[in-house]
Specification:
It contains no helices and 14 strands. By secondary structure, the protein is mainly beta. A five-stranded parallel β-sheet has the order 1-4-7-10-13, with no helix packed on it. It has a five-stranded parallel β-sheet with strand order 2-5-8-11-14, with no helix packed on it.
Length: 131
C-alpha cells in the first residue's frame, strides 16, 4: 500500500492475491515497473495489478518521458482498477495487456482498465492497451 508523496520505480510486483500495488494517497509516481510479470513476458499475476483506491494526482509513467511507462500485464483480475472517487490521476507510456516487447499479448484476467465509483484516470500519450 502506498500513501502519499511516493516514487515507486523499477520494481517487479508479482504474486499478490489481492492488489499488487494499492495507492490510497496523493502525489505519487509509479514508473519503469512490471506489475503482474517478473520477466516482461510471462504472467506471474496479482489479483489486481494497480488499485487506485481514493488516490489523487498519481501518475503511472511520467509525462514527456517515453521510457518511464510500466508493464501492467498478466494479472488475474483487472490490470488497473480506479475506484472510491480517485481523481486527477494520469497514465503515460504504459503497456497494459502486452508483454514488455510491445508486440506479444500478455492479457490481464479481467479488464485491462476498470474505472468505478466516481474514479478518473486521464490517458496521456504512449499507452498501449489490450482488452
Amino acid at each position: 500500500t502506498i500513501g502519499s508523496n511516493v516514487i515507486l520505480q523499477g520494481v517487479s510486483v508479482t504474486g499478490f492475491t489481492t492488489s499488487g500495488i494499492k495507492v490510497i494517497g496523493a502525489h505519487n509516481v509509479i514508473a519503469c515497473s512490471w506489475v503482474g510479470t517478473s520477466d516482461g513476458s510471462t504472467a506471474a499475476g496479482n489479483g489486481i495489478g494497480i488499485d487506485l483506491q481514493g488516490a489523487s494526482d498519481t501518475s503511472l509513467g511520467i509525462s514527456g518521458k517515453p521510457n518511464s511507462g510500466n508493464v501492467i500485464s498478466g494479472n488475474t483480475g483487472n490490470g488497473i482498477l480506479v475506484e472510491d472517487a480517485s481523481t486527477s490521476n494520469q497514465a503515460y507510456y504504459n503497456l497494459i495487456g502486452w508483454a514488455s516487447n510491445g508486440t506479444t499479448v500478455l492479457k490481464n484476467g479481467d479488464r485491462a482498465v476498470k474505472i468505478d465509483q466516481g474514479g478518473s484516470l486521464r490517458f496521456g500519450p504512449g499507452n498501449r492497451i489490450h482488452a
